[in-house]
Amino acid sequence: QLPLVESGGGWVQPGESLRLSCAASGSIFSIYPMGWYRQAPGKQRELVAYISLDGSTDYIDSVKDRFTISRDNAKNTMYLQMNSLKPEDTAVYYCNDAIQVYGLGPLPQHWGQGTQVTVSS
Predict the structure, then answer these.
(1) Beta carbons of 60 and 46 less than 8 angstroms apart
(2) 2 has pLDDT over 70
(3) Residue whose C-alpha is closest to residue 118's, from 9, 8, 11, 18
(4) CA dist., res. 44 & res. 3, Å (int)
(5) What is the CA radius of gyration of the chain?
(6) CB within 8 A of 28, min separation 6: which ones?
(7) pLDDT in tens, 3-58
(8) Model confidence pLDDT, tens digit, residues 65-81
């Protein structure tokens, strides 16, 4: 089993868009609720979006109208579409399970390298 691998980050100007991808080695997206996390400079890592086993989603308020989490189980890939990006979205973005949302386990303890998103003019 290989770790999750994030990609798709980069530098964009405010108002632009990015789509992040999270690749897995197996069909974990049909087994666990999954989420996108981010850690901004000087801030703690936070869960910004998650998707349940039935496909329902939720977001923190600051991204609710701008970000969309989705998955393609057949491709073992999860996505985060980020529109209307703001400087405060600047962070390293990670994917991982989100089982803690349902009280099924602890917060993730093992993280990949993440992908850097920088929003500035």
Answers:
(1) yes
(2) no
(3) 11
(4) 22
(5) 13
(6) 34, 76, 97
(7) 899 999 999 999 999 999 999 988 888 889 999 999 999 999 999 999 999 999 99
(8) 999 999 998 999 999 99
Q: Which two tokens stand for residue 106?
A: 């602890």
Question: For residue 22, what are its two tokens?
Answer: 């999270």
Q: Sign of dihedral through CA atoms 109, 60, 18, 88?
A: negative
Number of CB atoms found within 10 A of residue 93's CB: 23
Find all residues with CB under 8 Å of 88, minimum gap 6, and list them: 40, 62, 119
Encode burial over 52-61: b for 16+ CB neighbours within 10 A, e otherwise: eeeeebbbee
Tokens 């850097």 belong to residue:
116
